[in-house]
Amino acid sequence: MKKLYALALLALLGTGQATDPLLKVRQFRRAHEQELLREFEQLVAIPNVAADTANLRHTALFIQDMMRRRGIKTQLLAAPAAGVPPVVFGEVRTPGATRTIIFYAHYDGQPVNPAQWREGLAPFQPTYATGPLDRDGKITPRPAPGQPVSPDWRLYARSASDDKAGVMTILAGYQALAASKLKPKVNIKFFFEGEEERGSPHLAEILSRYKALLASDLWVICDGPVHQSGRKQVVFGARGDVNMSLKVYGPRRPLHSGHYGNWAPNPALALARLLASMEDSTGRVRVAGFYDDVTPLTPAEKAALARVPNLDQTIRQELGFARPYGTGQSLVELLNQPSLNINGMQSANVGAQAANVIPTVATAVLDLRLVPGNDAQRQVQKVIRHIDARGYHVTAAEPTDAERAQYPLLVRVQPETGYNAQRTPLDLPMAQQVIKAVQTTTPSPVVVLPTMGGSLPLYVFEQQLNAHTITVPVANYDNNQHAENENIRLGNLWEGLETMAAIMLLK
Amino acid sequence: MKKLYALALLALLGTGQATDPLLKVRQFRRAHEQELLREFEQLVAIPNVAADTANLRHTALFIQDMMRRRGIKTQLLAAPAAGVPPVVFGEVRTPGATRTIIFYAHYDGQPVNPAQWREGLAPFQPTYATGPLDRDGKITPRPAPGQPVSPDWRLYARSASDDKAGVMTILAGYQALAASKLKPKVNIKFFFEGEEERGSPHLAEILSRYKALLASDLWVICDGPVHQSGRKQVVFGARGDVNMSLKVYGPRRPLHSGHYGNWAPNPALALARLLASMEDSTGRVRVAGFYDDVTPLTPAEKAALARVPNLDQTIRQELGFARPYGTGQSLVELLNQPSLNINGMQSANVGAQAANVIPTVATAVLDLRLVPGNDAQRQVQKVIRHIDARGYHVTAAEPTDAERAQYPLLVRVQPETGYNAQRTPLDLPMAQQVIKAVQTTTPSPVVVLPTMGGSLPLYVFEQQLNAHTITVPVANYDNNQHAENENIRLGNLWEGLETMAAIMLLK
Questions:
Q1: What pLDDT sits at residue B9?
Q2: Contact state of A269 with B275 under an 8 Å Cβ cutoff
Q3: Where is the segment annotated Disordered (chains A, B) (predicted)?
Q4: Which ipTM score applies to this complex?
Q5: Do residues B380 and B452 share a domain?
């Protein structure tokens, strides 16, 4: 009996070195997995793309209900302008606490093209699978009450990982503490944004408007994936981000490619030539000055990078390509440089709808990632100067008849606002405490990353509130974030819940 | 009264120098415009894209009905393989005639993307407009019985011009003769193909199978637009045509452009670089040997080209671009060279659906137009060699895991069959008679063009039947052929009807 009991306890503990409070958290989660999944299904079933402001509001109200069910005082923080998805704010005061941690996640998601999702999936119809569907997973019904669910199962839906998993693990982490009568030593605040995927255009205004309410000692940002090894990760910064769209003009109406081909200029060719001029075959950006204003990494940051486990070969093989960009650098090294990515490119039609035409326009969307030292609008201007230097006339609006008549190469450039990169110093004491807290939840060494490749508006927190931020992601790395077939591994939800609870127990 | 009568007669004659028989043809048409339009509306309302074989068959049967209503003996000519849209054949014997003219048009249309059609239009919902909708035209209801209809009105629908206008004007031309008791001096045959826009993959088989039935002295091909000046046109050849699609591969699943941007290769960039390498900014193709095997124009052909009215400046202004391709050549000169056109290009999404991802694939469809001397598959091979020389591994199928692991640059190339160009000698006596016949229907000099820029499977007729072909188009040049918002100017239907009737009266 004694031996069996010890084995059962070990199983309960899993492989983590769970301390006593965390054991309670894990027990709570095991007992309530199915309820938590039901609630999460409801959360991800609400559409949350930027254009759908009604459903974004619906999402915000649903999150308020989630908070009220957990006894969290909540309010919506509105931007001065109407129609902006509100921030869902919440607060739990701890009598006698001198420090405050504010937990951030975002409830909006990237745009979706349902046609691109795998058969049997739809962006806002949460669907379970026994594993990743692009490997050996199979779609499976929602688990029956009492049915044990493997942590390797996935739930497929837009924002299942990015970033409703953040909202869910923060609130469920708090719930586990409260239900287990574990009292935090710090004040806890909650801040769930609704415009992150649009580039957080109203975040600065909201932060400035509610400065007093948002006072804190540290922002813990729950977004992005854990390390590809499955190891938990604490991240000290994020790249900045700014998008720009390019639209190249050809003939005013589509022309028969026989009757006019060789004579009427083809905008798809012009766009291809323009994009090709921007980057070489190693991904090196050829825009003048693109890498000029990068702040070098500190020796401590370089040392941290060197300690990050390198799984590049494994991931590359899994992703099925033969050669990464760069000239031998690792993934994490390359993420410390600014990037220029073609998010999408289109002119007329391909496949079954392709017709023998000279298209009228060709468009591309570029995504510029920024590192400390870069400025979003300065980076955009470098790209515009590059376009200009290639002989293009750049317009902000649809070209006029006069512009069409005058300029052989015409491109409409529409940059978005974007935001800059941010890095928190590695030696910030409270950040070091967060690393220790996360380490209590897992036997594997926590990966400490100076910056993540993805972007978060951390720069805005620093600028508006002079705030410190640290990012603690929970999603699996292979989550198809931003794309079709987005998913969360259920084990990552459960481990994320423990991570958030552990941080809330900071002394 | 007398003066009025003379004016009315002049109006009836229009500006053409109509001979007596043509006057009767015109009277018939004026009296039956509305009936003809009703029938044409029904014809263009039947979907006719290649994938929709059921409706292609429906179209063929509808055309047979049209022929039977006109007393034409008809049968369907099938290819040996099942599921191939049949040729609709018809025949009218003329007692004592020693010569036979066979009239060709095609009833299939280019693919459609209904989302790209203008508001109020749909590809298979014929819609009238008072003029071109991209200029001052307005959508207008079907004309009421007895309501006079301006020849400048347009009918919008897929294949309204390309090439159901050909089917309609040939059959209505014959109908006008029969109703006016005008007896042709030649035997007349009708041949309406159902796979032209797919590159006529079964035409050779059908021609060979029905060789005896299809015996003739001249094929009159009714397809393509009249000259941009509105002048009627007789064309002695067409470019050949072959399409090929390219698909470049990136990571197996779409990746977050932040977490992997700078490291995972972007297939949109690779495709842009590949396409950019194929053609310079003047449209000159940089594929090795692309222009090598072109048969030079004869002195007579060069002289004919010099006589073609040059409206390039006007069309360029109307189409809204500043500089045509080439180095100063005219449109008709450039059409005597092979071309490489990007029909369409796509990777991930743009616009509202654009997401911050590294796409998994990027595709393009190329359209190669050929001139005499070129061979379709030889031209395709030149492009493949070019791709190969740029370091790409070219595959015919989706790449295997081993290919993905081995080759940094991977492209799937899928060429279609295509066909070669053809040119009939300018001095062919029967062709000269056709020019004279067409000239009787119009006061403006008929434009004689050695080749059209567009393609027709004329080469196949020559190869299989040793047949002579001459092309007599009827559509307006600004018809959006192959694209969204395709339309026919009603006056072109009426003038086309007269053109076809005049050719049927050849002595």
A1: 42
A2: yes
A3: 132-152
A4: 0.87
A5: no
